[in-house]
Design brief:
By secondary structure, the protein is α+β, with helices and mostly antiparallel strands. The chain folds into 2 domains: 42 residues, no CATH class; 100 residues, Yope Regulator, Chain: A (2-Layer Sandwich). Helices cover 35% and strands 19% of the residues. The chain has 5 helices and 6 strands, in the order H-H-H-H-E-E-E-E-E-E-H. The protein has a 6-stranded antiparallel β-sheet with strand order 1-2-3-4-6-5, with helices on one face.
Length: 168
Amino acid sequence: MLVPENPNATSKNLQQAGTSKNIHRLTTSSTMANSPGKSRDLDHLMEQNSTELDFLSAYGGSSSEGDGKAIFSALQRYLKAGGVQTKLNRKKDSIAFSFGKAKCEPNGCKISFEGENLPLVASDLLQAGFAHGVLDDNREKGSVVMIEWGAEQRRFIERLVEYFTHGE
């Protein structure tokens, strides 16, 4: 590689000195990247493609603590909308329903469920937004703490509701 005698020499000076074509390509690409309107930053791409990036949540990135009251409240509304009868306890911090119970905890909402041949596998309880998931070997009992209320949690509850109201 040729090194210019003058350290302050620009890439234009290097090109005129007969350097390799690689420096010319580097100069051209950096000029294009710096031109307005032609470059996109990561935030712009993520915003534009946000619906296509949902799969990234499977790789984690969630906190181990959530807002238990908000998640518990959202779960109650979701079960009610799904036609599931629930009974709120006196302290108003847990509910019981035909296939289990849910309890508001400081860091999330613990849901316990029980039934024959549950439509779940252990990895369902290990997704982002879940913590402390347990499913017994014969798939008849399980529990998990929901620390987020997102698409995975709604889909999880929806699967249980559908199984117990239509399939069991």
